Amino acid sequence: MIQRIQSIYLLLAFICMTMLLFFPVFSIELSQPDTETIKALLTKDGIVSGQNLVTELPLFYVYILLALLSIACILLYKKRPRQLMITRINLILHVLLVLGIYTFYFFGEPFVMDGLSDGVYENAKIVFLMDTGFFFLIPPVAFIFLAIRGIKRDENLVNSLNRLR
Question: CA 49: distance to chain centroid?
Fold first, then answer.
């Protein structure tokens, strides 16, 4: 089970997804010329400013689901077609998560401004900054893609051995 290279790739994807539970993905700085800068973090629980939860966006459910899918793919090593199907679903879900977070990172400023609809932050400058968790989003996609290639390679090897019988 672990001696197969795709199991190593899936384990690395699992580790990256569990690291997202401990590190914030990015931070949002809201600054005005007259007042102090307010900093908020996108964490597993949502957008947090200081000790206060600003917006509840429970990403930890998504992180845990994707991490468990990676472990399930490792445990399905005896059923390669099913393992391949679950790994492909896992890849699609990872890509959707990454696209969603990156889209919000690059195009989310109007949504943050709409959320601050009171007139206090009318001329505020919003800056998105990458945090540690931001760099744990991309590697699982690559690891899962490599695992799919390894599973296909194993399936082709078994099929070629069946033809020799």
Answer: 21
Strand 52-56 relative to strand 125-130, pairing = unpaired
Closest CA to 77 of 159, 165, 150: 150
- Please state, as a whole number, how many other Cβ atoms lie within 10 Å of the Cβ of residue 18: 15
- DSSP letter at 133 equals G
CA-closest candidate to residue 72, choices 14, 18, 4, 20: 14
Cβ–Cβ under 8 Å, residues 126 and 39: no
Residues 122, 113: Cα–Cα separation, whole Å: 8
The two tokens of residue 159 are 């099929």
Which residue is listed with tokens 């900054």? 129
Give whole-number Cα distances, 164 to 78, 151, 152, 156, 159, in Å.
21, 20, 19, 13, 9
Taking the chain, what is the end-to-end CA distance rounded to the nearest angstrom? 25
What residue type is assigned to position 157 of the chain?
A: L
- pLDDT tens, 42-77? 777 777 776 666 666 788 888 899 999 999 999 988
34: burial class by Cβ within 10 Å (0-12, 13-18, 19+)?
A: exposed
CA distances from 105 to 42, 46, 85 (A): 10, 14, 30
Q: The whole model's pTM is what? A: 0.83
What domains sit in the chain, N to C, each tagged with a CATH number? 5-164 (1.20.140)
